[in-house]
């Protein structure tokens, strides 16, 4: 019996290896065919980019059958579908991820290897689609990965920006922005669908008319029309047949619109008109958590939201679903307030164009939308000045007035006479210049409102959205963010992936809670040693990269202390800078002092108009220029600012980190998601009790987390008492030394004016409590160094961090959205055969 089982095993194995070699031969054949027939090159003339594109097309061909099968399954089953509306999708390169999800990464590496090429080299050829700024855009990308992996019908809707987030370089330590022409060499991952283009109106005025049933109706007579053309990218799930769609809209001038001008002989005018239209999807606004207030930005938001809602109506029509069932077919999620104009636009489409009664339309609208809030920063809550709004969207302003009037009538019944509350809840801000409040519109028009971490949701309820919470507490829930382990472990950290898979099998890739299984290996010396070897090799790779890019030598055995994220005062990169200077002062005072060698690695972009953030970059690079070359330091401190932090660069950095810096002022970071990527890859966190850090500490245990700093209620109390940072400065000798040294111009060739604005803000206002947290931070960092000296203890803590990161898979987050907000189920996809497809 056991021998027949053995024979079967054997046959099975042989079967697999036969199939694999077949796969491999087929892959090699289509790779070379694509080089020939798509790139028009033979190997001797082919560039690296030709090879990249040939491989991309080879992979794309293999995606197509899954994509078609998925569309067929959803269409025939009229599946309930999630529509994720987001102004940003920070996808990162597609090729590596698709190879992993198809399960052919290793075969592809062999195939290109046999042709004398290096797969990683080819992967780096891909221009990353940087269609987002930071956390919010990357979260959208992790979510559509998880939706596909969980086999949930979903569409991601956004804008196909021609220029993504700017490329950052450094010049004399200052940030310099270069444009990101990511489409320069073509994009093999997208398909244009001009047959599904829609028309978008702007400006003009509204008119009343009576319809054939003598009913009074409104018509919007636009001043300008722009076409929205969808470009579709397949989003494949991990080891499933599901390939969902990311549908990004490009703005084009309608052919017919400039004909008039053209015929009147105004050729230049017609061309200008075309340029104005196409400007709509030209460039991503480079502000993260900061309002731009620009007319073009409102136009972009309305453009992609109207395109997407019209697309949903088209889908209803082809599936012969009556428009009254819109909310049964679609769960529409608003990723922050950027798409919240959708509430008014769906009302316009249903009332003005589909001719539904207002109440019916409102019921459908509220049942369709959910709203995710991502920030507690008051300046990041979007508002549009009334004149601007009126100019761009005159009909929507009328609709918003009507929604507001009906809403405030309801409020008055509950809170009669409470005029202050009514003013706060109003969709229109009336004190001073008038504004439309987009968060209020999103709250009123959605059946579900969520924050992105426990603390954040609690603070929304107590503070930012308190009035809405008191009105409708049942709408509120928390959905703690997560990140996809496919990109952030499997693709980014192949060494760790092999170690975990050899230890636990590969189930953890779809069920990250299984990482808990690592805990039982914590006393296995061989396992711990392999763990350390993985980290050491990843650090050596990053050290080589840094040495090449920045011409500074890096010791892979030093503690890699990493802070990568957008540069912002509330994230406090300058607090980390103060710590580096404190260590430097210790060395200068006593050159023989014993110190754990550290490499401080920073990365992140500053919004081009955010001067303080740019000065923070200059401060870090200036400190590096002194510390890295001071002979007294003897290599014990190194500071590296890696330019152009991006998804691609993140994939090199997270796996090599020992220490993850998550040091925002308590109560300011909604969640953070980089914190999770570090944890999964076995870094320990030094962090404040802010955002998802709190939940990370809950999962890993206090003893495996370096906590410091004021708690949120303490920050509030200090604020209420009247915080005087000068007092902290006077009380702490270490702090005084650091501030005085920076203030003196020591890091600016003696020019004390360079960092004066930064020092002045800290000493006078310090709105983010750096000086209040400084001593606690430095003490905590000393504890970090003490623990790091015990390499074995550190490794055990790192393993536990990884083992306990299951909660932070975006698969968990998406399951919660599906069951608690979207009420949507998975729809497994059967692969259609060639004959099925042709029939
Ligand atoms: O969203 C992330 C959070 C993070 C928060 C970030 C964010 C943006 O990137 C842009 C605008 C905004 O309102 C919030 O800062 O804390 O992790 C995803 O939820």
From TrEMBL:
The keyword Signal does not apply. GO terms for cellular component: cytoplasm. Its EC number is 2.4.1.1. InterPro entries: Glycg_phsphrylas (IPR011833), Glyco_trans_35 (IPR000811), Pyridoxal_P_attach_site (IPR035090). It comes from the Bacteria. One of its GO terms (biological process) is glycogen catabolic process. The keyword Glycosyltransferase applies. PROSITE patterns: PHOSPHORYLASE. Coiled coil: none annotated. Phosphorylase is an important allosteric enzyme in carbohydrate metabolism. Enzymes from different sources differ in their regulatory mechanisms and in their natural substrates. However, all known phosphorylases share catalytic and structural properties. This is Alpha-1,4 glucan phosphorylase. It comes from Hydrocarboniphaga daqingensis. The lineage of its organism: Bacteria, Pseudomonadati, Pseudomonadota, Gammaproteobacteria, Nevskiales.
